[in-house]
Amino acid sequence: MNLARRVYALRWVALPPLTGAGVLAMLVGAVVAAPRELVEGDVQRLMYIHVPSAQAMYLAFGVVFVASVMVLWKRDMRWDAAARGAATVGVLFTGFALVTGMLWGKPTWGVYWQWDARLTSTLVLFLVYTAYLLARAVSDPSDEQAARYSAVYAIVGFLDVPLIVMSVRWWRTLHPQPIVARLDPQLPDSMLAVLGISTLAIFLLAAWLILLRTDTERLGQRLLGLRADVDRREEA
Amino acid sequence: MNAFLAVLEKDLRLAWRDRAGWLTAAAFAAISILTYSFAFDLATSDVRPLLPGVLWTTFLFAGVFAAGAGFQREGEEGTFDALLLSPVSPTAIFLGKLAATLAALVVIEFALLIAATILFDEPLLTPELVAIVMLGTAGYASLTTLLGTLGSGHRARAVLLPVMALPLLVPMLIAAVRATGETLGLFGGDAPWVLLLGVFAAWSTLTAALLFPLAVER
Amino acid sequence: MLEPPASGIEARGLTRRYAGVDVVREATFRIPAGRKVALLGSNGAGKTTLLSVLSTLVQPTSGHAWIAGHAAEGRGAALRRSLGVLRHSPMLYEALSPLENLVFFARLYGVPDASTRIEELLRALGLWGRRHEPASVLSRGTHQRLAIARALVHRPPVLLLDEPETGLDPEGIALLDDLMLRAQGVTVLAATHRVDRVERWADGVIRLDRGRVAEDTVSTEVGVRA
User: Fold this and answer.
1) DSSP B1
2) Would the CB atoms of B77 and C93 count as touching at under 8 Å?
3) C-beta atoms of C89 and B10 within 8 A
4) Interface ipTM
5) A140 — alpha (psi -120 to 50), left (phi > 0) or beta?
6) How far is C90 from chain B (nearest CA, A)?
7) To pair with C131 at 20 to 30 A between CA atoms, which of A146, B111, C97, C184?
8) Is residue A29 one of the residues assigned to a domain?
9) Is residue A167 one of the residues assigned to a domain?
10) Considering the entire predicted model, what is its pTM?
């Protein structure tokens, strides 16, 4: 465990340059290196951001779920900070996924929004996690009861995800339509390579942002604690 | 079991004493139907395809509205603490509250079904439809009871309840509308909607009943 | 009117932290069964928090407690049945009458002779005449009397009271003192600001200062529990 701890301590040293390099590689790859797609044209390049963003979104929400379980189990407010941090980042990447999906949709379908099953479930998830952040935000960052309440909501929300995805998909199969991103294994190697690099880059970005947000939330909690301590001493 | 019944009876008695609150929810539901009627011109155009949607959005909004208002009180009076201090298990407390909420919601929904039958000249009180309504209500009542009870005593949270509950209830809403439409002969059977509704009801009740005791330990 | 207990209240190293501040710090004391102890301390000293932790409503950050021989961590039904609690809020259903409130709580606690017990309490606290009126129309003092009745309905061997005299008129306070004095064998820990009345009913004092036990005239020796 000591190795893990040391690696964790190095995160501010290692992550920024790695993430920077990754994102740069992703941009170069997506814009320049990857071949132009025949049917959709340059718009298809948005896939390199859209697909990994959606995956990062699920990853972030998975982190929120685990952190929320830990809040209920360990009663340690640090997990609440992690849950909030991951949720904020998750909402961010959900936003990326939705926006890139819409920007892709306009030239391809002619409209920004076609109630595509995947984008629609993504929108519902966006609302779930925004509701989570709102519910948490109306109380203090140090309020343990509020943390437990939000943790319960996050757990229910995460468990609901498969049901949401399934029901929306069934709903939309009534109206068949092109799916947003075709993840054919038939994609040429060059595209797959860029996609792989992009996924790595986005995941690094997500990890970095989650850690950053979590630390920020942690500092906020400690600040509140220090302030309360000062108030108490002044009273005495 | 005795405790469950005690809580149930107490909540039903409170619901009756405070019927103003529940009547407001029922009135809200009635007003919703009227609002839809004017907005979608339900009097003249062919009403049928819209009916399941109108019914279920009304049920949901009324239910969430009622849950938010109702649980406020328990927190404010500090009686929730008294329940937790008693030897009764939190699960019994939750199930008692859920049963009372279900009873009140079912009454409102029945009234609405009767009203809609008259207003839209549609036979809505069939056994299949009633079964679907009960199943769907079980689904949304357990989640709103969970969130409402845990969040009680904080006004801001009561206001947030619809925002929190409705996204979670999307599967139930879709399934309920489609199942209702199927029963009324409006849409074809394209997916096992009633099954999904049942799964959602079972999942939500189980999850809520398991999470409630974990969440109330302070 | 009140039951003799199995044993009293014991705390060892009880600590409760909120937002990085130790509201209760390493509280250690032992109150033998049947003793009546006043919990003193200025506002913010941690009295309410200590009582909340002992009542198992709030979990301690660290430390242990035993109520009537039951470990607090278990939070079991047996422990909660042994406890009668009075907090700042009366914890009553405003829409229900005193009688309905007590019937409900008696049912929750499984009181065997509920109707007799309830009548006994309502009469003793001067509430019998108003037993059918909804609690919302009762005055603050009457509420408090009803809250006291609720805390006592199941004859708990241990009482945790947070400023029980709040809102009571002199007659109510006299009734309260009377109840305390007559509570043979019941262990009482009552937070109070009425230092002047403490000698009337208390046989010991625990004083908190900024979360720590500053004075303790009750604990004989704090032994090690096996």
Assistant:
1) -
2) yes
3) no
4) 0.89
5) beta
6) 7
7) C184
8) yes
9) yes
10) 0.87
